[in-house]
Structures are given as structure tokens and as C-alpha cells.
Design goal:
The chain is mainly α and 311 residues long. It has 13 helices and no strands. The protein has one domain. It is found in: Membrane.
């Protein structure tokens, strides 16, 4: 009886984790969209810097004080340089993604984001000697075709937003491939929580000059906005904390479920985000756009299946 109760509690815990992962992921995406597009807070680099500052502070609290995971030390300058390189690519990905949200609806943003496996396969092909089975590459055809169809049928298509979103997706894939190459030796491997602990402060250092140069008087404008409407401060604080919880829940869900479950949940998460965003923001969608997005998701599922079978 005790064992059944333990299993039930464990299942409830996993379901709670998945719900927290979905809520934080979709919440940060929708809040980013609201702030950058609807609210009129036109500072994506500063917003990303707020996210990274929260990730730096909360990562330290979680690892050094709360001992969520053991702290892993950076062992050499070479390892630090590798982490800094990953942080630069990570910054590029997040900033580009946030810029794209100013111009594109969440539904289209997610459709483009679903092509990450295509870019991962391309970078892995170019940068490593690892080759996939031909059937794996064939499954990438519907992934790309779906986005081409979705682009043609997107009523709110914006070329600059599209380029930024493709750039963000490519950078996200590049980071995962680089991470596999740079931190592959046993002595240098870091779990995702420790990697974030080191990457986030480097990201803040990289983003600070970019914010000051490219987003003129952003602090003054934000403070002026806060005097008119103090909700902006709460939005930024909540959004930044949520950005950290995306990483925390992602780590915990990965730890407590299988890789396959994570893939299935990840594919479904994009679809849930699309439905919720359409309900909230009421952006126009076309049948062509939805068919394109569906084709991309089917391609991603086939790609995951082909990779699993050819391992």
C-alpha cells in the first residue's frame, strides 16, 4: 500500500513539474510578447539583460544556498573561454528571439522555432564528423516545407521579424551543437544549472554595453514609464524571475522524465503556446498558416523518431 502511495505521490510530483514547466515557458513567451508588442516596451536587449540578471542571482541562490544541485567549479581558463563563447551565442539567440516578438505573432514565432532540429542537423553535419542516417535527413523536408507554407499564409508576416526569428532558431541550434563539442570531456562537462550559473553573468556583461549603445536612455525611459504606471516594474521583475524558472523546470523535468517524454512534451508545448496566444492576442491566423505549422510539427516528430531508431 505504501509503495502504491509513493508511486502516486511521485506521479503527482512529475505532473506538477510538467505543469510548472509549461506555465513558465508559455508565460515568459506571452509576457515578452505583451511587453514588447502590446505594452509598447520597445527594448528587447534590456529585457534580455533583466532576464540574465535574474538568472545569475537565482542560479546562485539555488546552487550555493539551496543546494538544488552540487556546484561544479570552472577548472581552467580554456573552459571559461568555452563557456563565454556559448554565452555569446546564447545572448544572440535570446535577443533575436525577443526582437522577433516585437514584429511577429507568437503563433508564427513558434512555427519558425519548431525548425530547430533542421538547424541542429545542419550544424552537426558541418562542425562534427557525425552523420545521421539518410532517412533522418528526409524527415527534415516537412519541417522546412511547413515553415515555407506557414510564411506564405501568415497574415502578419514581417520580413525583419522573420529574419530575427530564423536567426534566433539557428543560434539556439548552434549553441546545443557547440555545447556538445566544447564541453564534451568528462572534466569539463557541466549540468544545465551550473552552465547557466556561469553563462548568465557573462551574458549580463556582454549585454550591458549593447543596451547602452543600441537602446538609448533605456533606464531613464523605464523609470519615467514606472512613474506613470508602476506595473511595468512588477512586469519586468515577474518576467525575469519566470525566465529563470523556465531553465529550472526544464532541468527538473529532464531529470524526472525520460528523453522521449521530454520530446513529446516539448512538441506539444509549442502547439499549446500557439492556441493560448491566439486566444489572448486575437492575432489573425490563416488555414494555410496552421497547415504549415502542423506539417512542421509532424516533421519534428518524424525526425525525433528517426533519430531514436538509428541510434
Amino acid at each position: 500500500m505504501e509503495k502504491v502511495k509513493g508511486t502516486g505521490n511521485s506521479r503527482m510530483f512529475t505532473v506538477g513539474l510538467v505543469l510548472a514547466w509549461y506555465s513558465s515557458n508559455i508565460g515568459v513567451l506571452l509576457l515578452n510578447k505583451y511587453l514588447l508588442s502590446n505594452y509598447g516596451f520597445k527594448f528587447p536587449i534590456f529585457l534580455t539583460m533583466c532576464h540574465m540578471t535574474a538568472c545569475s542571482l537565482l542560479s546562485y541562490v539555488a546552487i550555493a544556498w539551496m543546494k538544488v544541485v552540487p556546484m561544479q567549479a570552472v577548472r581552467s581558463r580554456v573552459q571559461f573561454a568555452k563557456i563565454a563563447t556559448l554565452s555569446l551565442v546564447f545572448c544572440g539567440s535570446v535577443v533575436s528571439g525577443n526582437i522577433s516578438l516585437r514584429f511577429l505573432p507568437v503563433s508564427f514565432n513558434q512555427a519558425i522555432g519548431a525548425t530547430t532540429p533542421f538547424f541542429t542537423a545542419v550544424f552537426a553535419y558541418i562542425m562534427t564528423v557525425r552523420r545521421e542516417a539518410w532517412i533522418t535527413y528526409v524527415t527534415l523536408i516537412p519541417v522546412v516545407t511547413g515553415v515555407i507554407i506557414a510564411s506564405g499564409g501568415e497574415p502578419s508576416f514581417h520580413l525583419f521579424g522573420f529574419i530575427m526569428c530564423v536567426g534566433a532558431t539557428a543560434a539556439r541550434a548552434l549553441k546545443s551543437v557547440l555545447q556538445g563539442i566544447l564541453l564534451s570531456s568528462e572534466g569539463e562537462k557541466l549540468n544545465s544549472m551550473n552552465l547557466l550559473l556561469y553563462m548568465a553573468p557573462i551574458a549580463v556583461v556582454l549585454l550591458l554595453p549593447a543596451t547602452l549603445m543600441m537602446e538609448d536612455n533605456v533606464v531613464g525611459i523605464t523609470l519615467a514609464l514606472a512613474r506613470e504606471d508602476n506595473r511595468i516594474i512588477w512586469y519586468l521583475l515577474f518576467n525575469s524571475a519566470l525566465a529563470y524558472f523556465v531553465n529550472l523546470t526544464n532541468f527538473l523535468v529532464t531529470k524526472h522524465t525520460s528523453a522521449l517524454t521530454l520530446q513529446v512534451l516539448g512538441n506539444a508545448k509549442g502547439a499549446v503556446a500557439v492556441v493560448i496566444s491566439i486566444l489572448i492576442f486575437r492575432n489573425p491566423v490563416s488555414v494555410t498558416g496552421m497547415l504549415g505549422y502542423t506539417l512542421t510539427v509532424i516533421g519534428v516528430i518524424l525526425y525525433s523518431e528517426a533519430k531514436k531508431r538509428n541510434k
